[in-house]
Amino acid sequence: MLLMSERVRLAPRVCGWAVLAALLAGSGPAEAWARPASTAVRAATAECSSSSDPALATRIATDVSEALEGRTGTVSVAVSAPGRGLTCRLSASRQYDAASIAKVVILEGLLHRANQSEDRGLTASEGRLARAMITRSDNDAASSLWRSLGRQRLNAVLSRAGTDDTVLGDNGYWGLTRTSARDQLKVLDAVSRRPYAMKLMGEVVAEQDWGVSAGAPDDVRTHLKNGWLPRARNGWRVHSIGTFTGAGRDYRMALMSHDNDTQKYGVRTLERIATAVHRSLGESKAAVRGFTPDSEISEIPDGSVP
User: Fold this and answer.
1) Which of 179, 184, 112, 191 is nearest to 152 (CA)?
2) What span, in angstroms and rounded, lies between the C-alpha atoms of 98 and 180?
3) Is the whole-model pTM more than 0.90?
4) Around Cβ 27, how many Cβ atoms within 10 Å?
5) Which of 71, 165, 239, 274 could disulfide-link to 180, CB 3.0 to 4.6 Å?
């Protein structure tokens, strides 16, 4: 059951495994490419609560479950709306390879070092790297900042945020950082207090602006970061995290998945969930953003792991 009329028809599940195998062969941590088994999303209801509006919590839990009807793969959901005392969780402690959403941890580490530890603004070089890393998901920029910050400083970011499930990737493979949806909400809580981070996450290039932004009302400002990476086990990791502000609203969403046959399929699953959440929390008569057209979703990995 769809939550609203989809503006584009759901894409047929066409595999591009041969192309991806060629892209991945012989690079990075060795993995033989294999098509993941297709498994139905476990029938589960999100656990939602609200100190101010229990009916809202019940509605979102139901809508998220309906959004997942008929979908396959493995999906985790974490949502918070602090002003309404609302939290929603579905398999939120499950760990996934972070792919490019690990770049938000790197950004928080960079800004904390400059602003708190060294009482300064970013250098011109740091600013260029941060902008490239977030708005264009530039991997060379991310790797440069990762090396500059070091594991001790990045682990301190995770400690300050209060994460429980996140483990940094080894040997420079920041894209293989293991993390969960509930931990990503904690990271979002940290960066949401940094205007510069919100500015960058609000300027992500159009071709990477999908996922949690689907269904957002036009009068809500979206700040997001996505990750999209196929691996030998668990197929495509497709993740989308973001914060939403404006017109008196402030809420956050972390959607994570793997076992997707294609990136398009994973994106569509996440966008169905996001639309359900926005419908309840957006509460706006403004125009609502539709699903990302299939033609605008590539099957090229984010490169977070070579």
Assistant:
1) 112
2) 8
3) no
4) 10
5) 165
Amino acid at 162: G
CATH topology of domain 19-296: Beta-lactamase (3.40.710)
Helices 181-191 & 102-112 angle (0-180, nearest 10): 30
Q: Among 210, 217, 306, which Cα is nearest to 266's? A: 210
φ, ψ (nearest 5 deg) of residue 120: -150, 170
Q: What is the pLDDT of residues 234-291, one digit of tens each?
A: 999 999 999 999 988 999 999 999 999 999 999 999 999 999 999 999 888 899 999 9
Length in residues, the chain? 306
Dist CA 85 CA 169 (whole Å): 33
> Among 234, 280, 251, which residue's Cα sits nearest to residue 76?
234
- Say if residues 301 and 27 touch (Cβ distance below 8 Å): no
Which tens digit of pLDDT belongs to each residue from 289-301?
999 999 999 999 9
> How far is CA 295 from its chain centroid?
21
Contact between 239 and 226 under an 8 Å Cβ cutoff? The reply is: yes
Residue 137 tokens, joined: 């998901």
Rounded distance between C-alpha atoms, residue 215 and residue 63, angstroms:
13
Q: Which CA distances in Å does 224 have to 78, 156, 190, 204, 295?
A: 14, 23, 14, 7, 21
3-state secondary structure of 49: strand
Count of C-beta atoms within a 10 Å radius of residue 21: 15
Dist. CA 246–CA 159, nearest whole Å: 29
Q: What is the rounded distance in angstroms from the CA atom of residue 26 to the CA atom of residue 224?
A: 32
Residue type, 193: R
C-alpha–C-alpha distance, residues 263 and 223, integer Å: 21
